[in-house]
Design brief:
single chain; about 140 residues; alpha+beta; Lipocalin; eight-stranded antiparallel barrel; 2 helices; globular
């Protein structure tokens, strides 16, 4: 009888933790939806820092894991494009973007998660760490 009660208690704790994780992920997903201005894109390579503004001005996260990166006017005229579509997924502390060939198509760790400001970090698989700052 004691084993059954312990098993039920353990199962209840697991279900509670899983639902809390799913709830945090869903809350972050709703917060992320909308149009975000790219404030800064920075790369750090072994104590060197380079701040670059990529040829994109904003990122729009839409429902159902779809999104769009809009290009700056100069880039649009030079490359003849309007931006890139992508797919995204998130957990409560990561965002993964897929579907276009830019510096943003990767998994990002969410360092700061606020309603109107996001700061994410990622690596390039070598010695570089990228920081992406977004503002709503």
């Amino acid at each position: 009888m004691k084993n059954i009660a312990s098993g039920l208690l353990f199962a209840t704790m697991i279900v509670t933790m899983l639902s809390a994780c799913a709830s945090a992920s869903k809350q972050f997903s709703r917060r992320l939806e909308g149009n975000w201005e790219i404030v800064q894109y920075k790369t750090e390579i072994q104590q060197l820092q380079r701040t670059a503004f990529p040829p994109y001005r904003n990122i729009t996260f839409m429902k159902r894991g779809r999104g769009r990166v809009s290009a700056n006017n100069e880039y649009t005229e030079e490359k003849g494009g309007q931006g890139f579509d992508f797919e995204w997924t998130c957990t409560d502390n990561t965002v993964t973007m897929r579907g276009f060939d830019t510096d943003f198509a990767r998994s990002w760790i969410v360092v700061e998660n606020k309603k109107t400001r996001q700061v994410w970090k990622s690596t390039d698989g070598a010695n570089g760490v990228q920081t992406l700052e977004l503002k709503k």
